[in-house]
Design a protein that fits this description.
homodimer, 161 residues, alpha+beta, 4 strands, NO_sig/Golgi_transp_ligand-bd (chains A, B), endoplasmic reticulum (chains A, B), Trafficking protein particle complex subunit 6B (chains A, B)
Chain lengths: 161, 161
């Protein structure tokens, strides 16, 4: 049974609902920003909730990199059914997480045809990463970038307090 | 790892988003109907999509009861991580599916305190059942009833064509 399909379908419904409710309004560019932040905020809360459950029985993390590794392996596997393929860092608070086959983009044709649709489908996940990190004590900015579907790079910049 | 938590959190976000966007409008009773049908429609499409994946490799069903049994066992297990506890039918197209511990209601206190909040959290699932059945060729009406949390009864009335 396709267990992961539930999340994928539900996510698509959310994206299309959020965009549809704003579609009738006038200032399209401003509304696009609103849609992205609505989805990002939903993702943030889901990420917070999930990490709380996931780390209930986990030992504490020894540093930021350790947190990021947990996110790339355990967290990613549970949500997206695979691990992050590549994690890079400059050791100064910036991390790049690359997923070569990001599950929320696999519905699209590979290549560049639907590239401009991609940001819609990444906002929720950016929020989810930010929420998970936030609950582990790391505040940061999370952005996503797609150059060829269905691969995706998430950039996390941790803000030092 | 709490795999089912993802669906539960995402579902809560959807419910709260749909209700919040309507909260500012005036005619509350009419808006409540709109919220329920928005959630029901989202569930319908998710149910359609899921059943298509789930039944890809399944043999065809011999009758309506066979379809309902599949829904109560395989479909329910995948989505809600448990089977339906009790299935009853009058053999004339009406089915009652009882889940004694419905996962989308387990966040609430048991008992009657939040009973009036329950319908919000059932609309999506009613739609999902209706969508799944529809894709298997059964058109029907699906309603839900809660008398004590977190148990829930779904009633399916198949419309004979």
């Amino acid at each position: 049974m396709a267990d992961d399909a539930l999340f994928e379908f539900l996510h698509m419904e959310i994206v299309s609902h959020v965009y549809k409710e704003h579609a009738t309004r006038e200032d399209i560019d401003r509304e696009r920003v609103t849609c992205v932040s609505t989805l990002e905020a939903m993702g943030f809360r889901v990420g917070q909730g999930l990490i709380e459950r996931f780390t209930k029985d986990s030992p504490s993390f020894k540093d930021d990199l350790d947190v990021m590794k947990f996110l790339c392996k355990d967290f990613w596997s549970t949500v997206f059914k695979k691990q992050i393929d590549n994690l890079r860092t400059n050791h100064q608070g910036t991390y790049v997480l690359q997923d070569n086959k990001f599950s929320l983009l696999t519905q699209f044709s590979s290549g560049k045809q639907y590239l401009e649709e991609a940001p819609k489908y990444l906002a929720f996940s950016c929020g989810m990463i930010r929420g998970a990190l936030s609950n582990l004590g790391l505040e940061g900015v999370v952005t996503a970038e797609v150059s060829v579907m269905p691969s995706c790079k998430f950039q996390v910049v941790i803000q030092k307090l």
